[in-house]
Amino acid sequence: MSDHELAADLATQAGTLLLDVRAELVDASGAERKASGDKRSHEFLMEALAAQRPDDAVLSEEGADDPVRLRSSRVWIVDPLDGTREFSELDREDWAVHVALWQDGQLSAGAVALPAQNVTLATPSVPAPPPAPAAPRIVVSRTRPPAVALQVRDALGGVLVEMGSAGAKVAAVVQGLADIYVHAGGQYEWDSAAPVAVARAAGLHTSRIDGSPLQYNRPDPKLPDVVVCRPEYAEAVLAAIAAG
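Above: the chain's sequence. Below: its structure in token form.
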């Protein structure tokens, strides 16, 4: 099984497990669903990667950070449950599972599963989104849209689209349901690695908000900002951020 196929398979399987957790805990509290989903998906991914790629390192949101990854040429960067709040709300579909592979300085494979939508987006081949509408759609958190996203909306005459997890937001751009995702104010490598790998495979622009490259498997896994957008919007988005 290739790395691309493994990323897609594991993200999809973890998503199926999470749907089972939801079904089992339908009468539980949201906090219980969050905790169980995080734990069970993480354990599944760690066991599966240990079996399928025993020589590779892993960086997971739910695991202790092992510095051995900094000496490794292959590191899986995973978020077992991206969007725990949305997962805990039984009527929401905007949560995801992220599985990415960093190899020799680059993201080389990645998959974003959207289990409640029965969708997995995975490298190496991701269709480009359909043509954009006249007014760009900027996807933001439903609770705390960042100031940079508001700057971009105002500069480009766009509209905001509220959504949950980072993976769901990037997937919306890939699928043509939105056009721009801009985030600033706090994320980690596992929040964006798989979504960025998928976005790049679809031909989208990806960068930091200052236009510099996104880099992964760094000693500090904090990666606080990201831009993912249709390439035709990239120059205007970055200019709007810089002007603000």
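The chain has seven helices and ten strands.
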